């Protein structure tokens, strides 16, 4: 894959602008703050794609909260297809037993990664566990998982930006866009 020096040139369509994302994150933060009022939250985010979303969302939640980070890699898949086989590269750094956990995800595609993570985290006896995903691609779902907070439902296209990568590039774009086919194929 060869990306352009100006990453914007590889983007065929802007799906979600910086403003749309900002407004949605504020809205999600308000809903979460209201739903968990009087409680303390633990936000668990999954590196690396959820990093910008986590950083923005946590600052829109008006509650005492802790954060923790996991890193997983799915293996056996291709650059754009996940396989469902998940390896934990970085585990939680603190126990979550009896904590209200909100798993913060960038995108739910097949749902296989999330399905694995929820089972894994349930094994650590949290008081509750819910999911907040910025993007949802329901057309590609292979396992049914309830997503408690969704930013945007998007069509079945491979997207980049605002944390999401193709070949580790494009994460720093401030919007979410669809790559031009040339950026995949070359
Ligand atoms: P799932 O297990 O198929 O739901 O895939 C989840 C992970 O695959 C996400 O956390 C992303 O890292 C990656 N992923 C899925 N769809 C996209 C996409 O359109 N662009 C970039 N990464 C994606």
Bound small molecules, deduplicated:
inosinic acid
- Count of helices? 4
Q: Segments where pLDDT lies below 50 for 5+ residues?
A: none
The percent range for helix content is 10-25%
| Total number of domains | 1
How does the overall form come out from the CA principal axes?
globular
The termini sit apart by 5 Å
For the largest beta-sheet, the strand count, sense and barrel status come to: 6 strands, mixed
List keywords for this structure.
186 residues; alpha/beta; Rossmann fold; 6-stranded mixed beta sheet; 4 helices; 23% helix; 32% strand; binds inosinic acid
Written description of the protein model:
The protein is α/β, with parallel strands linked by helices and 186 residues long. The protein has one domain: Rossmann fold, CATH 3.40.50.2020. The protein is 23% helix and 32% strand. It has 4 helices and 9 strands. It has helices spanning 18-35, 51-58, 112-122, 181-185, and strands at residues 11-16, 41-47, 65-75, 85-90, 100-108, 128-136, 149-153, 159-160, 176-179. The strands form 2 sheets. Strands 4-3-2-5-6-7 form a 6-stranded mixed β-sheet, with helices on both faces. A 3-stranded antiparallel β-sheet has the order 1-9-8. Strand 2, helix 2 and strand 3 form a beta-alpha-beta unit. Helix 1 crosses helix 2 (51-58). It is globular and about 50 Å long. 29% of the residues are buried. The site of inosinic acid has 16 residues, from strand 5, helix 3 and strand 8. Inosinic acid binds next to strand 5, helix 3 and strand 8.
